[in-house]
């Protein structure tokens, strides 16, 4: 796997690069600003971009805006965003930015190396990895959506899908069989009116619907 890292803090950037290298993941570029991120993505066409939301010069949303620009230049680019805080609008902007894997993790999650590396590989494969704290805050907004038609168990399954868990992992967490998980997911797709499509990932679309509720 080939990765581009965009992080203005040198020590954090080097630390993430080391974690990836120890797991056999190559960093083809490590940059400190948004313009350099876009240039690196266009030049290297990586399997994943790991991006800090806030970078110089204003330390607001430069990283996120650069990631969205990069996805325009390289459609389907998987992006894993790291943020110091839960910033709901940023998370939704990223998740709504098109096809391809997406992830939004709080930086403190990087300390759990195994989970972080799992998120890296999951997003690079086109999946999702959303921090549970982000999910909790987005849910708290409580807007009406088709998600309200799900049963409590189906909502639990969809929440774990949003975290990026596989069917097997969901079954283990909820102590139910893989067949039961597949049935719940089928019901979720039906209630959210997500028909099979060759161009879109129903699992990601379900997660987006869930986070926008």
UniProtKB/TrEMBL annotation:
Gene3D superfamilies hit by this protein: 3.40.50.2300
UniProt xrefs under InterPro entries: CheY-like_superfamily, NreC/VraR/RcsB-like_REC, Sig_transdc_resp-reg_C-effctor, Sig_transdc_resp-reg_receiver, Tscrpt_reg_LuxR_C, WalR-like
Taxonomic source organism: Nakamurella endophytica
GO process annotations (BP): phosphorelay signal transduction system; regulation of DNA-templated transcription
Entry annotated with the keyword Membrane: no
Pfam families per the UniProt record, alphabetical: GerE, Response_reg
Lineage of source species: Bacteria, Bacillati, Actinomycetota, Actinomycetes, Nakamurellales
Keyword terms of this UniProt record: DNA-binding, Phosphoprotein, Transcription, Transcription regulation
Modified-residue entries (4-aspartylphosphate), positions: 52
GO molecular function: DNA binding
Segments forming domain HTH luxR-type: 143-213
SUPFAM superfamilies assigned to the protein according to its UniProt record, in alphabetical order: C-terminal effector domain of the bipartite response regulators, CheY-like
Keyword Transit peptide: no
This protein's name: DNA-binding response regulator
Segments forming domain Response regulatory: 2-122
């Amino acid at each position: 796997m080939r990765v581009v890292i965009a992080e203005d803090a040198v020590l954090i950037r080097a630390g993430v690069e080391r974690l990836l290298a120890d797991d056999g993941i190559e960093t083809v570029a490590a940059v400190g600003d948004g313009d350099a991120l876009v240039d690196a993505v266009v030049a290297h066409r990586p399997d994943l971009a790991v991006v800090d939301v806030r970078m110089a010069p204003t330390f607001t949303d430069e990283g996120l805006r650069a990631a969205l620009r990069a996805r325009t230049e390289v459609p389907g680019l998987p992006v894993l965003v790291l943020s110091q805080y839960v910033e709901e609008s940023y998370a939704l902007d990223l998740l709504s930015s098109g096809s391809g894997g997406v992830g939004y993790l709080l930086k403190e999650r990087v300390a759990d190396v195994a989970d972080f590396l799992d998120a890296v590989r999951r997003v690079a494969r086109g999946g999702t990895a959303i921090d549970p704290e982000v999910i909790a805050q987005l849910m708290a907004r409580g807007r009406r959506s088709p998600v309200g038609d799900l049963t409590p168990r189906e909502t639990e399954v969809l929440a774990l899908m949003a975290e990026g868990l596989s069917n097997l992992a969901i079954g283990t967490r909820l102590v139910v069989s893989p067949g039961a998980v597949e049935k719940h997911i089928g019901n979720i797709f039906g209630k959210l009116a997500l028909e099979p499509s060759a161009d879109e990932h129903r699992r990601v679309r379900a997660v987006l619907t869930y986070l926008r509720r």
